[in-house]
TrEMBL record:
InterPro entries: Aliph_Amidase/BUP (IPR050345), C-N_Hydrolase (IPR003010), C-N_Hydrolase_sf (IPR036526). This is Beta-ureidopropionase 1. It comes from the Eukaryota. SUPFAM superfamilies: Carbon-nitrogen hydrolase. One of its GO terms (cellular component) is cytosol. Coiled coil: none annotated. The keyword Hydrolase applies. Residues 72-331 form the CN hydrolase domain. PROSITE patterns: CN_HYDROLASE.
Length: 393
């Protein structure tokens, strides 16, 4: 099957397998089937008008008798740049802000509590060019740059937490560049930021031309909807990176990415899911869509990213150049995974997660036990950098 015709693994299975076989294959590959969310008709109409796909599913948690369920609805945005890469920088950023505002409106209609965008979402992913200009002009302040102010408006308007991965310019320290994710509370306050801990130096993917490894450790951010962390892109290849976010108390770990099929297609649906199972948390992997081409000094045109997915602790599931052939996903500690979005179409994936699912996975013997986990925390706290305002109580 030609790559350009291959929408997703799920669609391929559905097309070629009898229904009974399909259910069994999905059970083996993806764990317990997720429940489809009943989303408003108006949201689907708005998504169609906005030219993006809308998908919703739920990771079911065990019903408890003495505690209220801790249910959180997450929005994972898989997008492409709407303008050619040689368009003036300000016009590109403005167009992306307008695009994301429309997607966030639909997310709000669907009751999303936390929304996360892809890696470096305000620009073409031009780091493979190794050219400084004009790409470094997309960098901005994480604290009060135009994109952070835009996201603060979104969070206040819709009452949702926003995770905004950008190219950061640290104006207080010599304009040093960082690959950063800014976390904004549902009230519009900047909770803090995290920086990409691991960067690739492989072929065209040598990002040290622009920025180096992050220096903020593994911060976790306390929000009204749970404790969240952001493991940016290449960090997903490093198991201890996931572990440290989990030890610091993260219940949901986002993995905003920009990766292509030829490099990561076989790893993509496994790494986030494995991290969810091993670290008893939910993981959400987000990629771009489209296809990237380049001519000499000009980074031009199209995009082909893989869709997003999400994963949960034992019991749930997640997913997400040449082409960006990896769709977004979500996964749970309970071994469940959401179906991936299209590899070619911008999408909003809405996994609904029950945060108590991670604890139930302990009881079922699917993750480390509470005693083992406590000893890990006691042994690791002294070498873990916490986000001062967000350490779980």
């Amino acid at each position: 099957m030609a790559g350009a015709e291959f929408e997703s693994l799920e669609q391929c299975l559905e097309k070629h397998l009898p229904l009974a076989d399909l259910r069994e294959v999905k059970r083996i590959l993806y764990g317990k089937e997720t429940r489809e969310l009943n989303l408003p008709r108006g949201a689907f109409e708005a998504a169609t008008k906005g030219d993006f796909e809308l998908l919703g599913c739920a990771f079911e948690a065990v019903e408890e008798q003495q505690r209220r369920p801790r249910t959180v609805r997450v929005g994972l945005v898989q997008n492409r740049t709407p303008l050619p890469a040689d368009t003036p920088v300000v016009k590109q950023v403005t167009a992306l802000h307008r695009r994301i505002a429309a997607i966030a409106e639909v997310a709000a209609m669907c009751g999303v509590n936390i929304i996360c965008f892809q890696e470096a979402w305000t620009m073409p992913f031009a780091f493979c060019t190794r050219e400084k200009l004009p790409w470094t002009e997309f960098a901005e302040s994480a604290e009060d740059g135009p994109t952070t102010r835009f996201c603060q408006e979104l969070s206040r308007k819709h009452g949702m937490v926003v995770v905004s991965p950008i190219l950061e310019r640290d104006v207080e320290h010599g304009d040093v560049l960082w690959n950063t994710a800014v976390v904004i509370s549902n009230s519009g306050k900047v909770l803090g930021k995290t920086r990409k801990n691991h960067i690739p130096r492989v072929g065209d993917f040598n990002e040290s031309t622009y920025y180096m490894e992050g220096n903020l450790g593994h911060p976790v951010f306390q929000t009204p909807f749970g404790r969240i962390a952001v493991n940016i892109c290449y960090g997903r290849h490093h198991p201890l990176n996931w572990l440290m976010f989990s030890i610091n108390g993260a219940e949901i770990i986002f993995n905003p990415s920009a990766t292509i099929g030829v490099l990561s297609e076989s790893l993509w649906p496994i790494e986030a899911r494995n991290a969810a199972i091993a670290n008893h948390c939910f993981t959400c992997a987000i990629n771009r869509v489209g296809e990237l081409t380049r001519t000499s000094a000009t980074f031009m045109a199209r995009a082909t990213w893989q869709p997003l997915t999400a994963a949960a602790p034992p019991g749930s599931r997640v997913t997400g150049m040449g082409c960006w052939l990896l769709s977004s996903i979500s996964t749970s500690a309970g071994r469940q995974v959401t179906s991936g979005a299209s590899r070619w179409v911008p999408s909003l994936l809405l996994p609904e997660v029950g945060l108590s699912c991670s604890q139930h996975s302990w009881l079922q013997g699917q993750c480390i036990s509470g005693a083992e986990g406590q000893s890990c925390v006691q042994g690791g706290n002294h070498r873990v950098q916490w986000c001062p305002a967000s350490r779980p109580q």
